Amino acid sequence: MEQIRSFADKYLAHVPSLKVTDIVEIIIISFLVYHIMVWIKNTKAWALFKGVVFIMVFIVIAALFEMNTILWIAKNVVMYGVVALVVILQPELRKALEQLGKTEFLASLLPFEIGKVEDGLFSDKTIHEISKACAEMGKVKTGALIVVQQNDPLTEYERTGIDVDGIVTSQLLINIFEHNTPLHDGAVIVRGDRIISATCYLPLSDNMSLSKDLGTRHRAGVGISEVTDSMTVIVSEETGKISVAYSGVLYRSLSPADLEDQLKKIQNKPVEEKEHKLWKGWPKNEKKK
Known about the structure:
Blueprint: H1 2-12, H2 20-41, H3 45-64, H4 68-88, H5 90-102, H6 104-109, H7 124-139, E1 144-148, H8 155-158, E2 162-167, H9 170-177, E3 187-191, E4 194-200, H10 216-227, E5 231-235, E6 242-246, E7 249-254, H11 256-267, H12 271-276
Parallel strand pairs: 1-3
Antiparallel strand pairs: 1-5, 2-4, 3-4, 5-6, 6-7
Helix pairs in contact: 7-9, 7-11
């Protein structure tokens, strides 16, 4: 018994006490490390991460065998390597920060949002006009790309196009996307009941799980839905089928009625509810239809 007591006094006396804040800190760090690893796994950073691990193992071996020249080179290259990694991963880092900024928990802490759509919920007439235009363009296989804005500002994408500022009508949409017209190439951005810009350039999705038969138009539609809360309507020029991209998920082969249902899902989302409801964790992608 005395031996156990002396062992405890000698070795356990220096063990720091565990506080509630320490437990909370461990949970937060574990949460962050887990999601950083998931982010690395789902981007091209995974290949770079494996390369960095290989280099680190090589440096450890060099240290064990006292290869001083290699260690000196590694020491001087490390600081430049960190800058190089930031430059190489700039698109992925930007996307990760955008996703972090879009979380409802952080949004509820901010008193305002720049470029927020206050009265941007579109009318039933706009839904009908978009659906009618897509149905007509699908029949004659006219390609179309229509981005419907919600709360996230699309100013940087509007600047790449030409200002239109016209009321949404099926005739106007069909005329814009008609072959060999000045405005047919690119995307149309709709805010509220008005077409804001045409011929806009959108970011392409780098999601490797997308079907290989999808072209640039569909990848652009998914790409803009990954970085904003907008809903994108795509009409295929090859098949005439209607698709919708939302939150990085592509819903294909929709009927005009299905398209109206999809648009009504975001039309009926009150701004107040989206601003103030409690954060329920990281967003999860739905399965493709």
